Amino acid sequence: MTRGTRQQLICQKTRGRERESSFKVNFSFIIVTMGLKSCVFLLVVVLGLSQGGTNIEEDQYGVRYATDCEVCKLVMKELGEKLQSKDSSGVIETGYNIDASKKKTKYNKSELRLVETLEEVCSGMLDYRIHKEREDSTRWAKKMSQTFQTLHNLVNKGVKVDLGIPMELWDEPSAEVTHLKTQCEQFIEDHEDAISSWYFGDQTKSLQSTVCKKTLKEKKCLSEPYGEDITAEEQAKEKAEDKKKQKGDRSKTRKNEL
After folding, report:
1. Structural domain boundaries enclosing 237
2. 104 three-class SS
3. Residue 38 falls within a domain, yes or no?
4. What averages of pLDDT result for each successive group of 10 residues across the chain (258 residues)?
5. How many domains is the chain built from?
6. Rounded distance, CA 164 to CA 172, Å?
7. pTM for this structure?
8. DSSP 106-166
C-alpha cells in the first residue's frame, strides 16, 4: 500500500475526527460541573488532550498512559484480530468497466482488505478498560476491572456509591483509553510501511515479531500475557498479594512511628 493512498484516506476523515474531538472536549467540560474533585481531574485531562497530552503530570492525577511497548502490543493484537475477521477466500476484480480483462486478486492479499482493516483498528482501542489494580501491561483488558465489578455489585445490593460522577458515566472510556486511540492512530501512520511489508510478504512471523520487536527499545511488555487472558484464579491471587503488601506497609509504618 502506497503512503499516498493512506494519506488520502486520512485527509478524507480529518474533518469528521475534528468534529468528534470537538464534541468530546465540549462534553468533558459539561462533566466538569460534577463535584470539585472530578472537576479538577477532568479539567486537567481536557486541557492536556487539547495540547497533545504533553503537559499532564500523569502520576499526580493517577493517569498513566500506554507506553510505546503497550501501544505496539495492543495495536498489533487488534490488527491481527481484525484481519482474521475479514478472512475470505473470495476474489475481487480491479480495473475500469471498459477493460475487458480486469485483474483478479484474492481478497486475503488485496490492498482493499488492509486499508479497510487499518481504518477500523483504532476504534477498537475504545473497548479497552484500565485495571488499576495491575501494574504491568495486563492493566489493559477488554473487560470490566475488579474495582468497577465490586462497585457495580455494591450498587446491585442497594449500597449507595458516590464517585462524584453519574453512574451512567462509570463505564465510559477513561482518559488513558481515549488517549490510547490517539496513540494508535499515530502508531499506524508511523509504522505503515512495516505493516504493509508484513501483509504483502509471506507472513511467517507474527505482526508483533515483525513490527514491535524490530522497532521498540523496551520490549518487556511483549513477554507478558494479555489482560483478557488473566484468569479469575490469577486475579484472586493478585488481590491476596496486594492485601498482604498493604498489611506489610501498615506494619512498617507503625514500627517507624514507635
Report:
1. 3-246
2. strand
3. yes
4. 51 44 38 38 40 50 89 96 80 58 75 92 92 89 67 67 61 84 96 94 89 92 90 60 64 65
5. 1
6. 14
7. 0.62
8. EGGG-HHHHHHHHHHHGGGGGG-EE-TT--SGGGEESS--HHHHHHHHHHHTT-----SS-
